[in-house]
Structures are given as C-alpha cells and as structure tokens.
Amino acid sequence: METSEKMKQIVRKKYSEIALQDKETNSTSCCGATPCGDKVYNIMTDDYTEIAGYIPDADLGLGCGLPTQFAKIEPGDTVIDLGSGAGNDCFVARHEVGAFGKVIGIDFTDAMIQLARTNAENRGFNNVEFRTGDIDNMPVSPNTADVIVSNCVLNLVPDKSAVISEIMRVLKPGGHFSISDIVLVGHLPEALQKDAEMYAGCISGAIQKQDYLGMIEAAGFQNIQIQKEKAIFIPESILSSYLDNEGIQDFKNGNTGIFSVTVYAEKSGDNSKNINTESPEVKACCPPNAGCC
C-alpha cells in the first residue's frame, strides 16, 4: 500500500473525476468515474429515493448505507456530515433539522465542495454550509455538533483513529454519531489489499470489524450499536482483475467477508436542548403596545 499522503492524493483525484462528470454520465455508469465491470464504486450504494429531503442531483451513488435514516436527528440540531460529496446526506439532514437547525458538510475535494455549494445555492438552502478540509483534522470548533453522520468515508482515510478522535472533539457533550462504513471479517487477498484503485473504491482501505468497533470504544464513546449490517459482494468481473480462477474460488469459499455497517455511538454528557422556535421577525419586534412594530 502507498503512503498515507499518496493514498489521499489518489482518493482526491478519483472523486474529483466523479464530481466533474455530468449527471447523465454518472447515472448511466454503475461504477462512478469509470465504465461498468472494472471498478467498484457503486456496488455498495443504497437507495435514497424514498427518503424525505432527497435531492437526486446530489446523489452520486458513492455511499454504502443510509446513515441519516438512523441518526436520530431532531429539529434544531447541528449536524456535520463527514465526506459530504455533492451534498446528498446533508440535504436529507437539512430536512430533519428544519429551519432552526444547521448542517455542515466537510470534504477535501474542491470539485465536490463546489458541486455541493451549487446544489444548495440553486435551491436557496441557507442553513447548509460546505467546508473544505480533512476529516482527520476538521475545520470545526470543539463541541459544535449534536449529530455527526458519514457515508462510506472513514475507510478512505489512512488514520482512522484520528478521525474518531476528531468526532469526539467536535461533538457536543451528549451528542452522537451514526456512520455507515465498510469493514472486514477475515483478511483480503494480498492483491486486493495492495491495489490503490480498490482503496479508492472503499474496499482495501477497510479494517477488521472488531478493530473498527474497538477503536470507537477506545476513544471513549458509549452505547455503541450496530444499527444495520449487510454483506458486500464483489463481482467476479472485478475480482478477475486481481485473482486467477483458483484465487477467486478460494476468496469466495473462504472465511473473508466484506460488510457495510452503520454504527451508532454517543459522547458522554448532557445534551439538553433549548430550541427557540420563534421566528426571527418575532424576536426582533419590541413588546406589544410599544408603538414600534
């Protein structure tokens, strides 16, 4: 595997390509930035079309779960989406937080940030903000978020423990996260582990399921739960690029499993909320009968 910085550059390049494609090209390709059959981007994605707040233009098919569906987002919450892409999960979260909530998307790909901002501006979404930055060093102050979501992104980051530490830092006391990601049970064949394309496609960057959960527990999170789990199957058309026929059969018949898991966990403390549901106009007005309204 390449160095951490090299892997970041590979991921940034691949996802910039996806962001810069027109929507029609993305829609007709089952594999993101490349033709079907030889890459892995869209073999894991879930269907958002029935979820309230869904914006088709923001869905590039790059996720592996539906974290916002499980995130227990409430009106007035501040939500942060890690690896926000074109804004898909941010816009779903925006529907949940309502007019008095806020959503912040973070992505390190400039092309994705621009695409997300365009999607928001075209719809007049004023309570959604997109910031450029690494999720292992977030451009966010401590104790900012009530809820953090992310969809198939932590596996793309070489230093996953740094991301989890950052999640702890920026969550408010009593806040929580719901994150969908790819994990392993058993070990991938060496040919898959070393391939940068498989890393950018979320496979070879995944870590063991128990290590993933243990990292979250070691960071101090509480009430850790797996909200959803599904098996991911790599088509033979992809495996054949890395393994011979015998290797493919060994892989399929072995003890290795690739799974999408949506994990929930809480930061300790009190997150009691005092949401002011008055409109800005009412708050700005002086008392009744004062003659100034």
In a nutshell, what does this entry contain?
The protein has helices spanning 4-20, 23-28, 67-70, 88-97, 110-122, 160-170, 190-193, 196-200, 209-218, 236-239, 245-253, 280-284; strands at 78-82, 102-107, 128-132, 145-151, 171-185, 207-208, 222-231, 257-266. The protein is of the alpha/beta class and 293 residues long.
What features would you describe in this structure?
The longest helix is centred in the first third of the chain and has 17 residues, at 4-20. The protein is an alpha/beta fold and 293 residues long. The N and C termini lie far apart (66 Å). The protein has twelve helices and eight strands. 33% of the residues lie in helices and 20% in strands. The radius of gyration is 20 Å and the shape is globular. The chain has one domain: Rossmann fold (3-Layer(aba) Sandwich), CATH 3.40.50.150. Residues 26-41 and 277-293 have low confidence and may be disordered. Helix 5 (110-122) links the parallel strand 2 and strand 3.
